[in-house]
Specification:
single chain, alpha+beta, 13% strand
């Protein structure tokens, strides 16, 4: 490799990182895809193993990419001009991907491992995304649409059956009646038109622990109402354990204090932006974290901080107390 020019090294290095990221993506998806079967067969030990495996996957692939680049670049490992060129080439390589934003964060993870960067370095990191708007278009919506049906229980039944879970329900008809009554009571409290005009449900279920969650939104008049149905197993069969119909309840469900969801999605950007419509106060970074993209979630949170600092006169100050036992805190909550 010592005979390669700097520009050629940048091209080869970018290709190496792209290959590593594709490996990460494929293995992440392979683990995530197992969640439906784990839920259907009540394989809770397997679900726990998958959660642990997926959590350790990112660090392992980053370490492999770092080792490959150290071997490739040799004594030019910390040449920032090569890395700046590598970043530009890599940006072009991922421009056709549906998960470009997560791929950018992967590049950052590798550079920070090699340079042990303090702060940020715009030259060799995607501090802001290279893409102001998505570089690709979705092939289909992330959600499925249900137009008005004769009765709300019939609507609930159709929604649940469309997820094609290979499990027996204890009594789906009774569950649908209870959920429908809950929806209608909630609409009455909001003083809506009392009829569900349209429902949009994310096409794949969210799995976590021993539960499965069907997530979407329903429309009645000018109201858009969050909808999340929680499914659990009982000895007699699966039941709809609860129906969440307000932003606060759904937001708690997606809190990153919980473990990460396993949900099949090729285009996380669209999924996150759909979720933002039912949880507008939830930070974008928190939603990425809740879906298992914890590193990119941190990237989004940091970008929120930079955006805040760019539009405020507030400044950090040293908190009183023993050095090493306190943190730097903003004067206002962000």
């Amino acid at each position: 490799m010592s005979r390669l020019t700097d520009s050629r090294l940048a091209v080869v290095g970018a290709g190496t990182l792209q290959t590593a990221y594709v490996t990460l993506h494929d293995q992440f998806q392979a683990i995530t895809t197992q969640a439906k079967r784990r839920f259907e067969t009540q394989d809770w030990a397997g679900m726990q193993d998958d959660a642990a495996a997926r959590l350790g996957l990112y660090r392992r692939i980053v370490a492999l990419a770092e080792a490959a680049l150290r071997d490739l670049l040799g004594n030019r490992l910390e040449n920032k001009l090569i890395w700046a060129s590598m970043k530009a080439v890599y940006s072009g390589l991922i421009a056709g991907r549906d998960d470009w934003e997560v791929a950018e964060t992967f590049f950052n993870s590798v550079t920070r491992r090699i340079f042990t960067t303090v702060g940020v370095d715009h030259q060799i990191e995607f501090v802001a995304s290279d893409f102001e708007t998505p570089p690709t278009r979705p092939q289909s919506p992330v959600y499925r649409v249900y137009n008005r049906v004769p009765t709300t229980p019939e609507l609930v039944t159709t929604i649940v059956q469309d997820y094609r879970l290979a499990v027996p329900f204890r009594n789906l008809a009774d569950d649908a009646l209870r959920v429908a009554a809950r929806i209608e009571a909630h609409m009455a409290a909001l003083n809506t038109l009392r009829t569900v005009e349209r429902v949009e449900m994310i096409k794949t279920a969210f799995y976590r622990g021993m539960g499965a969650y069907l997530v979407g939104r329903l429309f009645s008049g000018s109201h858009s109402i969050p909808l999340a149905l929680a499914l659990i197993h009982t000895p007699e069969g699966v039941v709809i354990d609860s129906a969440l119909l307000d932003e606060d309840s759904v937001s708690i469900l997606f809190s990153f204090a919980h473990s990460y969801f396993h949900v099949e999605v090729e285009r996380p950007y669209d999924l996150v932006h759909f979720l933002k419509t039912i949880m507008p106060r939830k930070r974008t970074g928190e939603l990425y974290i809740s879906l298992g993209y914890h590193k990119h979630g941190k990237t989004e949170l940091y970008r929120d901080l930079l955006d805040h600092l760019a539009h405020t006169q507030e400044r950090f100050e040293i908190a009183r107390g023993q050095r090493g036992m306190v943190m730097l805190l903003s004067l206002i909550h962000i």
